[in-house]
User: What shape does this take?
Amino acid sequence: MKRLLHASLIFVVSLLVSNCAVTPQLPDNGPVRIIFHNELSGLSSTNLSDCDYLGTLISSEGRWYNFLYISNAKLAHGSLNDMHNKASQLGANIVYIDNNIDFNTSVTFLGQAYHCDVITNQ
Assistant: This one.
């Protein structure tokens, strides 16, 4: 019984420690510009309308079992890395994030992915 308890404790601790790292940005990603809703005023409204819409993306970082061990800044950074990875895999070079979705245990962003031939106002 003592051996089973010890093995269970090691498993739980290793699970917690292994999940404290945030999502990295993949090295083979293409360039992706992430634009938040408050930055859109700096772009002309025709910029995104001239682009090809590729779809909606949802990125998230943090789980119910590890959010206490990761700072909010790292959770946000990991979620943005996740968004960047998904956008790059989709072939997008711009992601417009209207807002974030508030949860107590994670940072989640909802964005629209676009591919634009010419990106201005960088």
